[in-house]
C-alpha cells in the first residue's frame, strides 16, 4: 500500500528511511508547538487555542503535501509572522480577532493564486541562477539559526557578531553533536543525523542540560472557530487595513515559495527548472494558512526544517505523513516534547550541517555574468543577514530587473518579474515588517 501511495522504489527510498526521516523532521521543527503558542498568547489569544490552531494547521497542510503532492515537506505556522502579528497587536490597538481576519483575507487570496496557474507561473518566472541563490541562501539561514540558537555565534556591539563562550554547556554540547553527526556521516552510517541527535539528547540528559520533569500530559484543545470571519473581515475593510493584508500575503507567498523551492531542489523534485506536482504542493500551504487564520494562528509556511528529513534520505510524502503522526503523538507527550524542544543543543547540530548540504547549489550559479551573479549574491547574503526569506528574495528580484534593463536584455525578464519587483519596492519602502 505504501509503495502504491508514495512510489518509494521510483524515488529510491524505503519505508524505514522515510519514517526515520519524518521523526528527524519532527524533532527539528517541534519547537513550533511550544514557541508559537507562547508568542501569540501574548496578544490575548488563549494559549490552548493557539496550540490547537498550530496542530490543525500542521495536519491540514502536511497531509495535503503528503498525499496530494507526495513531497517530504512539512507545513507549519511560520516564525517571524507570529512576531509581526504580536507587534501589530501591541502597537496598533486592534483586537487579535481583527488581525486574524487580515490573515484570513490574505489567505483567501493566497488559495486563489495557488489554485490557478499563477503560483506555478511565478516559480517558472524566477531565473535559474536566482533559484540556486535562494537554495544556498536558505542553507546559510538554517546554519545561522543553528549557530545563533546554540550561542556559538552571539551579538556583539562592536563587531556585530562574534564567537560565543565555548564553555557554555549549550554551546559545547552543540559542538559535540556536530562532531557526532559528522563522524557518522563520514562513516556513511544510515540515519546519521537522527542517531547524532539521539546521542546528543542522552548526553544532555545525563549531564543535566536536558531536564524532563514530566512525560505524559494532554493540553486542553478547543476545535471551534475562534471568531466570525465574515464579521471581522468587514471590520478589516471598514478600518482600511489593506496594507497589513498585503504584507501578510507577500511575506507568506515568498517565504513559503522560497523554502519549497530550496527543499524540493535538495530532494530532487525540481526537474528542468520546474517544480514537480507544483499545484498540489502550493495548495497545501495556502489551505493550511487559511485554516490557521480561522482557528487562531498566523500564516503557515513550508518549513526549512524539512531539509533535515530530506538530508537523511526522505524523498516522498511518507516522510511528511510520518511527521504528522509524531505531531499527533506529541499531543499526549506534550511535556516531553516541550522539554526536548527547549534544548537547542539537540536540534542545532542538524541545522548547521544541513545548511552546509544546501550550499551545493552555489556551484551552479553563472558567476561570469554580473546580471545573473549579483542578484543571486545579494539573495544569498540578504536572507541570512536580514533574517527574512521574503526580504532576501525581494533584493534579488529588484537587482535582477534593474541590471537586465541596464543591458537592454528585456527578453530575459519574465513579465511577472517586473510586477513583483515593483511590489517589492512598495513593500520594502512603505509596508515593511
TrEMBL record:
Family: Belongs to the nucleobase:cation symporter-2 (NCS2) (TC 2.A.40) family. Azg-like subfamily.
Protein localization: Cell membrane
Transmembrane regions: 20-39, 51-74, 94-113, 134-155, 170-187, 194-212, 241-270, 377-403, 415-432
Keywords: Cell membrane, Membrane, Transmembrane, Transmembrane helix, Transport
Taxonomic classification: Bacteria, Bacillati, Bacillota, Bacilli, Bacillales
Chief localization: membrane
Name used for this protein in its record: NCS2 family permease
Coiled-coil portions: none
Annotated InterPro entries: Azg-like, Azg-like_bact_archaea, NCS2
Membrane topology (UniProt): Multi-pass membrane protein
Pfam families: Xan_ur_permease
Amino acid at each position: 500500500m505504501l509503495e502504491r501511495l508514495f512510489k518509494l522504489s521510483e524515488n529510491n527510498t524505503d519505508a524505514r528511511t522515510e519514517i526515520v526521516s519524518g521523526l528527524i523532521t519532527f524533532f527539528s521543527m517541534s519547537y513550533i508547538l511550544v514557541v508559537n503558542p507562547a508568542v501569540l498568547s501574548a496578544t490575548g489569544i488563549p494559549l490552548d487555542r493557539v496550540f490547537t490552531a498550530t496542530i490543525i494547521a500542521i495536519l491540514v497542510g502536511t497531509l495535503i503535501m503528503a498525499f496530494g503532492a507526495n513531497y517530504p515537506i512539512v507545513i507549519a505556522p511560520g516564525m517571524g509572522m507570529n512576531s509581526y502579528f504580536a507587534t501589530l497587536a501591541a502597537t496598533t490597538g486592534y483586537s487579535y480577532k481583527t488581525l486574524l481576519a487580515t490573515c484570513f483575507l490574505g489567505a483567501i487570496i493566497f488559495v486563489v493564486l495557488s489554485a490557478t496557474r499563477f503560483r506555478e507561473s511565478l516559480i517558472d518566472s524566477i531565473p535559474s541562477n536566482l533559484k540556486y541563490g535562494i537554495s544556498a541562501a536558505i542553507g546559510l539561514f538554517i546554519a545561522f539559526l543553528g549557530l545563533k540558537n546554540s550561542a556559538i555565534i552571539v551579538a556583539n556591539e562592536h563587531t556585530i557578531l562574534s564567537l560565543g563562550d565555548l564553555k557554555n554547556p549549550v554551546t559545547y554540547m552543540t559542538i559535540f553533536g556536530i562532531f557526532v553527526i559528522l563522524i557518522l556521516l563520514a562513516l556513511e552510517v544510515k540515519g546519521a543525523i537522527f542517531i547524532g541527535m539521539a546521542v546528543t539528547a542522552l548526553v544532555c540528559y545525563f549531564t543535566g542540560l536536558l531536564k524532563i520533569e514530566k512525560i505524559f500530559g494532554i493540553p486542553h484543545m478547543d476545535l471551534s472557530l475562534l471568531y466570525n470571519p465574515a464579521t471581522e473581515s468587514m471590520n478589516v475593510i471598514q478600518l482600511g487595513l489593506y496594507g497589513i493584508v498585503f504584507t501578510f500575503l507577500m511575506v507568506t507567498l515568498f517565504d513559503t515559495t522560497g523554502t519549497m523551492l530550496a527543499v524540493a531542489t535538495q530532494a530532487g523534485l525540481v526537474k528542468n527548472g520546474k517544480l514537480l506536482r507544483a499545484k498540489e504542493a502550493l495548495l497545501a500551504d495556502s489551505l493550511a494558512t487559511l485554516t490557521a487564520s480561522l482557528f487562531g494562528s498566523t500564516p503557515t509556511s513550508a518549513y526549512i526544517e524539512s531539509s533535515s528529513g530530506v538530508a537523511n534520505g526522505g524523498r516522498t510524502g511518507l516522510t511528511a505523513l510520518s511527521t504528522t503522526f509524531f505531531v499527533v503523538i506529541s499531543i499526549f507527550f506534550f511535556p516531553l516534547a516541550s522539554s526536548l524542544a527547549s534544548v537547542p543543543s539537540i536540534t542545532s547540530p542538524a541545522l548547521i550541517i544541513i545548511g552546509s548540504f544546501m550550499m551545493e547549489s552555489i556551484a551552479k550559479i553563472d558567476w561570469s555574468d554580473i546580471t545573473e551573479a549579483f542578484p543571486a549574491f545579494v539573495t544569498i547574503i540578504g536572507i541570512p543577514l536580514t533574517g527574512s526569506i521574503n526580504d532576501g528574495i525581494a533584493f534579488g528580484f529588484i537587482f535582477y530587473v534593474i541590471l537586465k534593463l541596464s543591458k537592454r536584455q528585456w527578453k530575459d525578464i519574465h513579465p511577472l518579474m517586473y510586477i513583483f519587483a515593483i511590489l517589492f519596492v512598495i513593500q520594502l519602502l512603505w509596508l515593511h515588517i
